[in-house]
Design the sequence.
């Protein structure tokens, strides 16, 4: 039997994995991270413009900064919402998935490294939700989210009298002043860029290898499981 | 020493200043402290009635640029009254006595005005090797400061050296240079950073203590809010160019001649808290940005170690002198892309059976 016939004949069972709020969180986050990355890079390294204009006729750099600040608020509150959903969401969204506090989680992580990264082993039955390594990576990502939020709002505090950024006004003194805080904020931006490359690649990889609809699962919420395999594993 | 100390007015009159000059000083100091004009009377009255505060001015690891700045303040009375007349009870640079007499003068002040004098320190304190890197009169600077702080009413740390360590605490900090607030505990400490600080700011801090008999409102880093609450960027006259995205690209380009923003030349104005854009320097003539030079952030902690003065993004540690976060990041991005492509190729070889049949190779299944 060729591969297409085999896949068509297999019993692929749909399973609802990502709830609507999780999907919304994901895409809002993806959008604002791209906006923040692009505007942030422009703020750090603005393009050179040599025109004979006077400053009073332009405000484009101010607009870029404004977009960055608005996106930062969206990013932060979207993130806070996701943390909340980690407590009330379904079992795939629960906070327990992300923090490797059990030995089983570490064992699973090692399995994923062997199967997917070094490819020295074959996977019997792919995880339905996040795999152990992915969820640990997201945990690290959340820590970077927090760092990026506090450094960002920390340096923003000097530009805004409103109460929310003022909550972060003490942050720069922890990192040794605004200069160092800004530098850290800039370096962390690259974490997001590298994450995006690996993340998108791995989505393609899993979809291709596991044929479980992982790409569309973040749109529709459904993933697919090969019933034959699940049954066989139970035996 | 036992006789009544002169007030600031009496001291000024003795020096030959008119009362009118004195009133001008009062008005000017009120303005510098950011007070309302209704406070002019209070400030002037305080200087008229209050006896001069005895000041001990110590010099440690420093270049004396703070003193140099102070004696060049815009109003002659600032230097004459506050520094020259106040109390050269002890300051190595400007006092008349030397040697044993100087030490005696220091000890007399500390004894006679115990609990009432103001200790001002210019310079950081070396702490390595028991502090041998700065010894005066056979004692380490750390001991001298500790002893003098004991009977002080308040301590003012003049300049970046005393406030945050400045250049001698830059990596690798061979002498263990330490700012005052990390050594002296249990005394009100005011940091007046800058390399040097602005003369009018220094005077403003002293006059505030004198007028209200308490230390001015400070921020988290113990800096007086009146002078250090705003960034140089926010008070910069070139700010509209920043918002319009008009930047100097090199020091000799057309944009530099037009006076565009120096952000891309490494200006630290957006991360520096100081009053340079408002009070300016040398009698209000100019300040670095107005003279076409980016702010180097001299009043900020670690400004020597936070990358080059002429770079927006500092060198990335450990990646050579021409590296910065963007170059390192881009390199990592390319490496990741190559790694991902290699992984995709290997996947198609190693997992060809899985891809074709949907089944694992038997030999791999444990």
Sequence:
């Amino acid at each position: 039997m060729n591969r297409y016939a085999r896949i068509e004949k297999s019993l692929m069972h749909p399973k609802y994995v990502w709830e609507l709020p999780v999907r919304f969180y994901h895409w809002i986050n993806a959008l604002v991270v791209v906006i923040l990355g692009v505007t942030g890079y422009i703020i750090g390294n603005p393009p050179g413009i040599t025109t004979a204009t006077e400053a009073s006729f332009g405000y484009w750099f101010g607009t870029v900064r404004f977009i960055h600040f608005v996106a930062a608020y969206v990013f932060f509150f979207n993130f806070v919402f996701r943390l909340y959903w980690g407590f009330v969401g379904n079992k795939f969204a629960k906070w327990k998935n992300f923090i490797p506090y059990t030995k089983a989680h570490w064992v699973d992580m090692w399995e994923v490294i062997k199967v997917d990264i070094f490819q020295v082993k074959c996977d019997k039955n792919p995880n339905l939700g996040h795999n152990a390594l992915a969820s640990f990576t997201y945990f690290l990502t959340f820590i970077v989210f927090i760092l990026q939020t506090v450094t960002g709002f920390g340096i923003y505090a000097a530009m805004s009298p409103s109460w929310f950024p003022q909550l972060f006004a003490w942050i720069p003194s922890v990192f040794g002043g605004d200069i160092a805080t800004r530098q850290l904020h800039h370096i962390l931006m690259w974490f997001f860029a590298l994450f995006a490359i690996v993340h998108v690649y791995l989505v393609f990889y899993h979809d291709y290898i596991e044929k479980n609809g992982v790409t569309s699962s973040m749109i529709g919420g459904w993933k697919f499981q090969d019933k034959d395999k699940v049954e066989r594993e139970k035996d | 020493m036992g006789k009544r100390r002169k007030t600031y007015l009496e001291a000024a009159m003795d020096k030959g200043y008119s009362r009118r000059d004195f009133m001008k000083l009062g008005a000017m100091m009120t303005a510098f402290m950011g007070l309302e004009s209704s406070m002019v009377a209070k400030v002037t009255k305080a200087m008229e009635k209050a006896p001069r505060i005895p000041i001990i001015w110590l010099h440690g690891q420093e270049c004396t640029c703070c003193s140099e700045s102070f004696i060049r303040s815009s109003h002659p009375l600032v230097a004459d009254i506050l520094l020259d007349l106040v109390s050269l009870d002890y300051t190595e640079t400007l006092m008349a006595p030397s040697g044993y007499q100087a030490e005696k003068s220091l000890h007399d002040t500390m004894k006679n005005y115990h609990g009432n004098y103001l200790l001002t320190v210019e310079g950081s304190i070396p702490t390595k090797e028991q502090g041998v890197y700065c010894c005066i009169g056979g004692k380490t600077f750390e001991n001298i400061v500790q002893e003098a702080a004991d009977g002080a009413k308040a301590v003012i740390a003049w300049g970046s050296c005393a406030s945050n360590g400045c250049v001698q605490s830059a990596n690798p900090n061979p002498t263990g240079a330490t700012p005052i607030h990390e050594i002296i505990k249990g005394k009100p400490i005011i940091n007046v950073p800058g390399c040097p600080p602005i003369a009018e700011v220094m005077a403003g801090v002293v006059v505030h203590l004198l007028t209200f008999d308490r230390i001015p409102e400070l921020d988290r880093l113990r800096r007086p809010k009146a002078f250090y609450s705003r960034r140089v960027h926010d008070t910069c006259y070139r700010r509209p160019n920043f918002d319009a995205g008009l930047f100097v690209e090199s020091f000799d380009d057309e944009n530099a001649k037009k006076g565009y923003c120096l952000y891309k030349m490494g200006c630290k104005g957006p991360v520096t808290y100081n009053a340079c854009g408002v009070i300016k320097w040398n009698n209000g003539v100019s300040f670095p940005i107005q003279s076409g030079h980016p702010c180097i952030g001299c009043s900020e902690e670690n400004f020597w170690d936070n990358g080059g003065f002429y770079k927006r993004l500092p060198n990335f540690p450990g990646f050579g002198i021409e590296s910065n976060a963007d170059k390192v990041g881009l390199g990592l991005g390319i490496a990741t892309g190559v790694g991902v492509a290699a992984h995709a190729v290997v996947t198609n070889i190693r997992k060809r059976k899985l891809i074709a049949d949907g089944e694992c190779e038997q030999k791999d299944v444990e």
Notes: Chain A has one domain: 3-47+58-234. The beta strands of chain A are 12-16, 222-226.
